[in-house]
Specification:
The chain has 237 residues and is an alpha+beta fold. It contains two helices and 18 strands. The radius of gyration is 32 Å and the shape is rod-shaped. Pfam families: V-set (PF07686).
Length: 237
């Protein structure tokens, strides 16, 4: 996008950075500027990060000491250990024979490893104790979540309503779907990607028939033993 600042047509460059990393911001066309008087880097149009005039040492804002590095050769700015609060517009204004302005719209994103998966406890208990059930799965991240329902029986699960997906305003996406007997939650953004997998056999009562057979067998054997003991007691008396 183009923004008008004091009749300057400024192209804003979007940049996505993973939380905790650094970003290097360059001044466009700095190599063609002559007789530079001053360079100023700002954050969100108001907070001054660095001021510099040739022949003098650059002045760094105390709030950013140790977190920014300024190059007196090409006027670039390196911002380190970026946090979510550092998301915003970074502006460089170079004043000389002509005035050059550069803008970056920085978005700091949390890594997708923050991804979580949640199976409701009620659904799990119901699935493990009955021949069929509805299993509710919720996939969530720090800024969004999505839910889907799976119908499970003694062998497998099927997804009611088909695959579910969601895309946030920041471009991150969540996707929950069923593949080869596995429930998969997928999360991605511009800086990372991850997924979590859960086998549906953990929730399907596949051995329900075997349990009933085993209980019946135990009862039958116990009855036979009891009759045998009773006969022994009678003979002894």
């Amino acid at each position: 996008p183009l923004m008008n600042h004091d009749k300057l047509q400024v192209a804003v460059t979007p940049v996505f950075v993973q939380k905790g990393n650094y970003v290097l911001l360059n001044v466009m066309k700095a190599d063609v500027l002559q007789d530079v008087f001053s360079v100023v880097w700002k954050f969100n149009k108001k907070d001054v990060l660095v001021r510099f005039s040739p022949g003098r040492e650059p002045t760094v804002s105390p709030a950013y000491t140790g977190r920014v590095e300024f190059s007196v050769n090409d006027y670039s700015l390196k911002v380190k250990n970026l946090q979510e609060a550092d998301s915003g517009v970074y502006t460089a204004r170079v004043t000389g024979d002509i005035q050059e302005q550069t803008e970056y719209n920085i978005t700091v994103q949390v890594s997708a490893v923050m991804f979580l998966k949640h199976f409701t406890q009620t659904s799990i208990l119901r699935c493990r104790s009955s021949d069929s059930c509805n299993l509710t799965v919720t996939c969530s991240t720090q800024d969004s979540h999505i839910s889907s329902t799976f119908r499970c029986d003694t062998k497998t699960c099927s997804q009611e309503g088909g695959e579910q997906s969601e895309v946030t305003t920041s471009g991150a996406s969540l996707h929950v779907y069923l593949v080869d007997g596995s429930i998969i939650c997928n999360h991605s953004n511009q800086v990372s990607w991850t997924k979590d997998i859960e086998m549906t056999e953990h929730f399907c009562p596949q051995h329900a028939g075997e349990i009933v057979f085993s209980v019946g067998l135990i009862i039958m054997v116990s009855a036979v033993i009891s009759v045998h003991i009773m006969e022994k007691l009678k003979k002894h008396k």
